[in-house]
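Minimal example, chain plus FE2/S2 (inorganic) cluster.
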Amino acid sequence: KPIGAGVEAGLESIRDGIAQGRFPARVFNDQEIFDIEQQRVFSKAWCFLAHESEIPDRGDYVTRYIANNNLIVARDESGEIHASLNMCRHRGNMMCKSEMGNASHFRCSYHGWVYKNSGELVGVPYMKEGYEGRIDKRDWGLIKVRTQTYAGLVFGTLDPDAPPLDEYLGGFQFYLDLYLKQGNSGSEVHGPPDHWVTETDWKIAAENFSGDGYHTPVAHQFGFNLGYFASSGATHSQGWAASIPGKGHGIGLGHTPGFPPFAGFPEELADEMRRSLSPEQVEVFSQTRTAVGTVFPNLSFLMQPFSIVPGQTGVRFVTMRLYHPIGPGKTEMYSWCLVPKDASDEYKQEAYRAYTLTFAQAGTFEQDDLENWARVTRSAGSTMARNIEFPYVMGMDSVRDPDFPGPGHVVKPYVNDSNFRNLWSRWSDYMTGQV
Ligand code: FES
Ligand code: FE
């Protein structure tokens, strides 16, 4: 049923369709869907804001978005992280115009109200002469957004009733540790994010990164032909699709038989991980060649070994990316390279080089994906696409792999629609107001 027949009925019908392995094309480029997402998904979910290592020192800040709200994410003078709406309480001017920097205070460029980086209002020009005691500074600080962190990731939510972040992640932490706990000191960003605007709907990227191993041998065929992947068309489907039912998070774990455990990590780091992670994590991670996952709704990760010399294992690079929706079919991308804090500078440089060549804004693999995603987006916005659905039936009857030690619904092979059904089912929970 098209949504035009009644928005709520349309959303319910999408929800029913997902259970049967169908999802409509139009959601990937539609103004009405976009508007509802802003209210019901992005204003309720825990949304990624920043990595703690982006703001390591007192006064460091970055500006980020939740829905269309610009937030200042700052470390205050006592080292605590705050997220505050970047909007002056006097007449609404955007306080901070820079995307990152260091400041103990922000002074509004319109009438000069001054706030601490924690959001507290501390200065009002002509306070005595103008306001004559009618303003109490304690009532007019910047609007605060609730934040919580996991392993260096700072999330924020606009919903005061949202469950704690740990519950929201719901066990997906097990898999996130592969990206975030590389070595005893964890991971850090290597430089600021690449940041650009694409003619792509955020959902296409979120779905792809929740484990689309299916596109790799085709969209990135050159990588196979030149020997850049430690798998072949014949072995590529092997591995697992793991998702957290009812939470929307999912990860694809590509496995190449015979590929050495933890290959691509520096040896000392692999040893640290063997010691610091749980035995179940070690068992899963040591078998993982490629890991590509999405935290619902719009934060994704990819880790894989890469060498500029085809056929060699090279280094494991990690990209973390945030899809900030700015319109139907339009997304502001943020992409970081994460490196293990404890690794040598040489390893960090090499990982950054691998990331830049592959998945940074101008990376070759990124180009492969974005060109396809832009075309999917364009066709999804066409009039005929309004009544077209896509099949999501791959692995519909797969049962959980009984031997897999990680949490969630875990099925074989890696090439599977299981994670996508879970992702869209969670999306439709939010869209129909179940969350
Ligand atoms: Fe900021 Fe007036 S709008 S001081
Ligand atoms: Fe891709």
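Residues 171-431 form a domain with the Naphthalene 1,2-dioxygenase Alpha Subunit; Chain A, domain 1 fold (CATH 3.90.380.10). The first helix runs from residue 7 to 19.
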